[in-house]
From TrEMBL:
Statement: the UniProt record of this protein carries the keyword Ion transport: no
Keywords: Cell cycle, Cell division, Cell membrane, Cell shape, Cell wall biogenesis/degradation, Glycosyltransferase, Membrane, Peptidoglycan synthesis, Transferase, Transmembrane, Transmembrane helix
Positions of transmembrane segments: 23-42, 62-80, 86-106, 149-168, 180-211, 277-294, 306-331, 343-364
EC number(s) recorded for this UniProt protein: 2.4.99.28
Organism this protein belongs to: Phaeospirillum tilakii
UniProt pathway annotation: Cell wall biogenesis; peptidoglycan biosynthesis
First-listed, main subcellular location of the protein, grouped into a coarse class: membrane
Gene: ftsW
Lineage: Bacteria, Pseudomonadati, Pseudomonadota, Alphaproteobacteria, Rhodospirillales
Protein name: Probable peptidoglycan glycosyltransferase FtsW
Length: 376
């Protein structure tokens, strides 16, 4: 049964169908399908290793699939004004949860990043990123359109607040992603050249400071620079999986890396893809991520609403950067960082938060005309 709407259909769904980017929806659905396939391939072995039922992670992941798709499509129905309102409320809730994380959050591997709500584990930082991107875009756009509006000052304050809360966990990687979103949006909104130079000079200083202040950052950088001098087991095992998989892989279910790699279903799920399905599937995944980002940016070429340009770019930077960090860590192109591969790695918080982010991208890049175009 196919969905068909006439071009003269003025219903909510009819207008949505002819204004939303259906190619981006198709690419995102393919990513979700690949994620479901790889979760079924990778997680049973991990479940058995920690002595839980084989399909424990599969069932938990599939529970979030339908809500994630519903959230993404539901949010895509919103107008830019409604996206802003949702982002403001969402950021306030996310900040409140980030305040609670160091106080009552569960400690895992020396960090507190999770809250348990109604029996579910929630990672507030995953939700803070997309809401932060939209609210900061609103502040920068407001400052550009009205020089008397203190949008830049508010945006700087929001960066300091959210980044400070993330560093308390500590989560340096998510803080870096947040800072990158902020910097890209500020640059597009007209960052002064002197500040561009200053931030360029400050970046390596901040990187050295993070290395000195956070032992887990120091450990990961040291292992990256000298794999033989530390425990680089997961990355070395992942690289072996890629070599073993070759071009077309050893076949579904035939991989060995998932039997020994602790994070085979989360941070290193691309290694499972490389071993069982080969370079071919990995290139498809890379192409899908690139398509979503480039397609979203292409939709902005004729956009004259500064808020829409900034918010969409910030959301796409988050999406693309997170994918690049995960894949680069797996391939030992950068120090290891526990960051999920969007829509593919196991994780309910990540799945729903990314669905929110891409739903907002779909909403902001819809073709707008007439009264709908004025509702921004």
């Amino acid at each position: 049964m196919s969905i068909t709407f006439g071009r003269t259909d003025t219903s909510v769904l009819g207008r949505w169908w002819w204004t939303v980017d259906r190619w981006t929806i198709a690419a995102l659905m393919l990513l979700i399908a690949v994620g479901a396939l790889l979760t079924m391939a990778a997680s049973p072995a991990v479940a058995e290793r920690i002595h839980v039922e084989s399909f424990h992670f599969v069932r938990r992941q599939f529970v979030f699939l339908a809500p994630a798709v519903a959230v993404m499509l539901g949010v895509s129905l919103l107008t830019p004004r409604q996206v802003r309102r949702m982002a403001v409320i969402g950021l306030l809730v996310s900040v409140a949860m980030l305040v609670l994380v160091p106080l009552i959050g569960a400690e895992v591997k020396g960090a507190r990043r999770w809250l348990t709500l109604a029996g579910l584990s929630v990672q507030p930082s995953e939700f803070a990123k997309p809401f932060f991107a939209v609210v900061v875009a609103w502040m920068f756009a407001g400052a550009r359109l009205d020089p008397g509006f203190p949008g830049r000052l508010i945006a700087c304050g929001l960066l300091g607040l959210v980044a400070g809360l993330l560093l308390l966990q500590p989560d340096v990687g998510q803080t870096a992603v947040l800072a990158m979103i902020w910097a890209v949006e500020f640059f597009l909104a007209g960052m002064p050249l002197l500040l561009v130079v200053g931030m360029g000079m400050a970046a390596p200083v901040l990187a050295v400071a993070a290395y000195q202040m956070f032992p887990h950052v120091q450990s990961r950088v040291d292992r990256f620079l000298d794999p033989s001098g530390g425990d680089g087991y997961q990355v070395a095992t992942a690289l072996h999986a890629f070599r073993n998989g070759g071009l077309f892989g050893c076949g579904p279910g035939e991989g060995k890396v998932k039997l020994v790699l602790p994070d085979a279903h989360t941070d290193f799920i691309l290694a499972v893809a490389g071993e069982e399905f080969g370079l071919a599937l990995c290139l498809v995944v890379v192409a899908l991520f690139a398509f979503v980002v480039l397609r979203g940016l292409a939709r902005l070429i004729k956009e004259d609403n500064l808020f829409v340009v900034l918010a969409t770019t910030g959301l796409l930077v988050q999406f693309g950067l997170q994918a690049c960090v995960n894949m680069a860590s797996t391939l030992r192109l950068m120090p290891a960082k526990g960051m999920t591969l969007p829509f593919i790695s196991y994780g309910g918080s990540s799945m729903i938060a990314l669905a929110l982010a891409m739903g907002m991208v779909l909403a902001l890049t819809r073709t707008r005309y007439g009264q709908e175009g004025l509702d921004t």
